[in-house]
Every structure is written in structure tokens, then in C-alpha cells.
Amino acid sequence: MRCVPVFSYGVSRLMKLLALQESILAKPISFGIFKFNTRKACEDEARNRVNSYSAGSIISTTDKEFFEALFTLHGEYDEKIGCGIKDIEVVLDFHKNKCLSIIRNDNSKVIISWRHCVKPYTKKMVVSYSFRRAVKTTVMEFKSMALSGGATCPVSNNELSFDNSHVSYTYVSFDDLLSNFLATKNLGYEDIELIDPDAADSDQRGVLQNTLLTNSWHEYHKNHAKLTLLSADANLRK
Fold first, then answer.
1. pLDDT digits over 154-166, tens only?
2. Are 105 and 83 a contacting pair, CB within 8 Å?
């Protein structure tokens, strides 16, 4: 949740925001075989598991199963997982707080925020992730094709591989692209209906319920999205 200065909102409005946040944290959350009556309970469970290890430790098989399932809720799940999870290591972040690092099957490493998986999302964020999921195959096909003949980041000039590169939207951002599409349908984010994916699905982002809308989005994305391949660092600096 983005912090806001008290003086710009006033105490009364700030208290309302805190109450809203608390009500969201009270909602249930599930991923894979794991179910919690509240997001707060899930947050506490994840924190306790992480804190049971010292920095530099590889977590147990049982805890690995828990976090592998939790990670499916991450907004950048595909990019983070890459070629698959070999191990998960407890490391320290810049502030010396414990966090998790994925060790991929090719031994590359990437930090992943378990808090990002647990924190409550706005309706807009949830819907946006679902529309990203809907065009995931198209985006990944672009990435594979771009890498097939060898690729170099146009910003850093570094040689790109599957794990050190991100697909990025140029000219029009994904958020603007999606907002423009919804405007053509006279729809808002609140109008979009989602259904839950199967528990066994590795991608736990919501699924668009309306098949016609999904097909229309595919076509709009095909005609209007401009994609490029950047290094992960260059993309995150955008």
C-alpha cells in the first residue's frame, strides 16, 4: 500500500483508509492446497516460516512447497520463476531484513517478495493481472522468437537470455493499452467479472469470465501492443 502524508488527507480520512486496509486484510486467501481465513493469518504464517531460518539457509521441502504455491499469486510470476525453482534461499535485503531468493534450475538467482503475493490488491490491479494472463502466451511467444536469433538489450547493449530479459511495452504502456481497450467497450475495471483458476494451475491470477471479451482483447492486443525485449535491469528502471 502506498503511503500518503497525513496532512494531505487529514486524520479522519486516514482512519478510513486504515479501516479499509484492515477490512481487506480480513478477507480469505487461498493458493494451491493452502487456505487461510484472513490475509493477515497468511502473512503471519509466511513471516514465521521465513524467520525460522538464518540468512543463507535453504528452506525445507515443506516450506518450499508453501512458498512455491504462494509465489503463483505474484504479479510477475513468470518472469520471477524463469526456468523453474530449484531451491529457495533466505537472504537479507538492503535494510538487513530477511527475504527470499529463488535459485532457478540453471542456478541463476532472483529476489522475490512474498509480501507482494499476500498484500491486498485493488480491483484495478486484480483485473489488470487477469488481462496480462489472457495474453501471456502471446507475450511469451514474442520473447522466444526475439531470443531465437540472439538478442541484445537496446538500452544496456547486454546479451539477453530467457532469464535476464523482460518483455516491455513501448509507445503505449500496458496500463494505458488496457484502459483504452476497456474504453472502446464502455467498460470500467469494476465491470469485469473474473473466475478462479484451478488450484493445480501454476498461474493463480484470475481468469476472465467473458470469452467474447477475452477474444476481443486478444485481437486488440495483437493490433495495438508494441513489444520489445529489454534486460531485466533496464525494464525495472523504466
1. 998 989 998 888 8
2. yes
